[in-house]
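Standup notes
- DV: blocked on the single-chain target, sequence here:
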Amino acid sequence: MPAADRLATLLDPLKLRLARSTLPARLREAVLSLLPARWRDQVAGETQRLCLWRHDDTLVLVAARHRGDLRLGEVPLDPDLLEALGARADASGTPRWLMVPAASMLRRVLVLPAAAEPRLREVLAFELDRQTPFSADQVSFEGCVLSRDVAAQQLRVELLVLPRTRLDAELAAIGPLARGLAGVDGIEADGRRLGLNLLPDAARAQRRDPVRRLHLALAATAVVGLLATLGLSLHNRAERRDELRALVASANDQAREARLLRNQLVSSAQAANFLAATRASRPTMLEVMDELTRRIPDDTSLDKLAITGDQLVMVGQSRAAPALVALLQASPLITDPALSGVVQSDPRTGRDRFTLTARVVNAATEGVDDEGR
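- DV (later): unblocked, structure below
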């Protein structure tokens, strides 16, 4: 089975349920009630039709409107008059329907399974041979559902059959007006229409929907509006994305600059702390000179005094060079004093030439180290 047929089979139950409900009529009435009266007539104009039926040698004209029928009058079956009438009807765009007396139709009431409703016309075509003396190509027929028995899953359907010979005779009687017919319906003796269309599909006039252009324009406007809305939304999102990217890039640049400044600050702080720690861990040159001046006796002279880092080197002459070690050991600023090399006597001055090394420390640091030990 083709995909289109399978889809139609699946949709048929939904179509039937919708057709049986009052929802379409209620929606139509609700929509029409919202429109102005002038627009309401135009939108509901698809129910307007010009009904024709032959009565003896005259043609009765009735305007069937959604507000009710209006009898327009009677005209003789004159070919010229019918031609002019057909031209005016074609110009107005009003669909024309031929009314055939219901008494001229063959009517049968059938009981069918409810499953036959989606393919009712096909089922009725098979029933023609059993219910009528005609074949399907000799008649025009339609079916009308009279009632539905949900419990028994059955339908009461009225089969209405119009012989083609009678239909052709009626069409020939109205002459030029038969060319643009939209349908053929049956009419009861009391003027009630059956609501069928017995005109073959090939003979039906293709009528333009008066509001089709409006519907197409509204649909096109809706599509254009939807596309414009989507485009505007995408444009706004793209702009917002670019703004966010710019903000993120700016924030990254600021963060990078902040990291550089922080690194520079940390480096400067570390250097400053190192210098401060170094200065705090060593006594100043003035303090060392003052300490040496107080500790070294007057009979000692220095030829060289060098302090490299915390290393102290003294080169000079003294009458008691070994005693200098004991004198400097008592100093809080000098530790580990020791004579380096051999102490030599200078015969010219009578004093000993010496080289003494020591380590310069901070008195507070030395006190802390002593307490720790």
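- Follow-up: The chain has two domains: 28-210, 285-372.
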